[in-house]
């Protein structure tokens, strides 16, 4: 697999399968074909991530078998002998959850997040698998963690003005400064921008941070980057790369997205409800076992 988002997208398209039901195309992937593309050399290790994804479904009252359909098939092992092999038919949502639970240190997971998170947010916005506030909160925490790790890599590379450094990444991703971005979206300059953005924006920014952390660390190690200015340039370059990825996959420029209701206020209201989470209807599409044969 080519180590770029384009290469990952091409791989996912090649491995993608589809079946028809009620005049609708249902897409899915085979876990056995997918796990090495996610950077796992052992099936058992990937199986642990699948189980975590299934647990996430159960926690949010979504039936796991609608997205992780277990199938068993006989495979030839030589000299006419066969043995049973377990596989999973994975929906796009299942791949989304696997990317969230997988080892973030693997380069392939960065590509997986960019591909499946952006695609899932764009295509399943009308039927989210978890409450919007809860999802935004989780993605907000992921972004905080990713930015802290990016800050560590930037410090090692010689960055001492982190305001300028992070501004460069924003400029690359949005084509605007944070001040201009807030003005365009009607967000008060004194308000926290990340409190008012969608899961798609949070995901894109997390991916930018993860990718920039990796490229800055690698270029510093190879003697290709050193100091504030070069780190800023690399962060801006990565921001532009992610910007183009989002545009190519969704047709969206992030700065054109409308602001979301305050996450802080939504969580406050949600906390006061008698039930912490509203029941989420199970998916109406279940991938048939025969689809993988």
Brief summary:
The chain has 293 residues and is of the alpha+beta class.
What does this 3D model show about the protein?
It is a single chain. The chain is an alpha+beta fold and 293 residues long. The protein has helices spanning 5-15, 31-34, 43-59, 92-101, 107-123, 132-156, 162-174, 178-185, 199-221, 228-250, 263-272; strands at residues 17-21, 24-30, 68-78, 81-90. The protein is globular and about 65 Å long. Mean pLDDT is 81; it is low at 124-130 and 274-293.
Structural class: alpha+beta
SSE order, one letter for each helix or strand: HEEHHEEHHHHHHHH
Radius of gyration: 21 Å
Largest sheet data: 4 strands, antiparallel
Count every beta strand, where a strand is a DSSP E run of 2 or more residues. Answer: 4
Uncertain runs are: 124-130, 274-293
Span of the ends, CA to CA: 25 Å
Strand order of the largest sheet: 1-2-4-3
Give the strand content. 5-15%
Overall mean confidence score, pLDDT: 81
What proportion of the residues is helical, as a percent range?
A: 40-55%
């Amino acid at each position: 697999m080519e180590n770029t988002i384009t290469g990952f997208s091409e791989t996912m398209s090649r491995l993608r399968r589809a079946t028809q039901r009620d005049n609708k195309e249902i897409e899915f992937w085979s876990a056995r074909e997918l796990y090495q593309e996610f950077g796992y050399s052992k099936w058992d290790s990937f199986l642990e991530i699948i189980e975590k994804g299934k647990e996430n479904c159960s926690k949010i009252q979504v039936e796991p078998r609608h997205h992780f359909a277990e199938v068993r098939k006989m495979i030839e092992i030589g000299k006419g002998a066969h043995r049973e092999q377990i596989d999973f038919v994975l929906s796009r949502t299942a791949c989304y959850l696997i990317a969230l639970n997988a080892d973030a240190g693997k380069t392939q997971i960065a590509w997986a997040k960019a591909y499946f998170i952006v695609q899932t947010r764009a295509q399943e916005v009308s039927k989210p698998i978890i409450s919007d506030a809860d999802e935004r909160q989780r993605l907000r925490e992921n972004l905080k963690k990713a930015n802290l790790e990016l800050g560590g890599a930037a410090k090692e590379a010689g960055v001492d003005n982190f305001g300028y450094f992070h501004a460069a990444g924003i400029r690359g991703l949005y084509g605007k400064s944070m001040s201009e971005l807030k003005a365009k979206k009607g967000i008060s300059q004194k308000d926290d921008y990340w409190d008012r953005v969608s899961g798609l924006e949070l995901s894109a920014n997390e991916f930018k941070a993860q990718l920039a952390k990796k490229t800055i660390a690698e270029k510093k190690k190879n003697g290709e980057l050193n100091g504030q200015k070069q780190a800023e340039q690399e962060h801006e370059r990565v921001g532009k790369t992610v910007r183009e990825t989002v545009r190519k996959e969704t047709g969206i420029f992030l700065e054109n997205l409308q602001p979301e209701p305050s996450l802080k206020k939504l969580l406050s209201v949600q906390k006061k409800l008698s039930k912490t989470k509203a029941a989420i209807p199970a998916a109406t599409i279940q991938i048939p076992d025969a689809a993988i044969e």
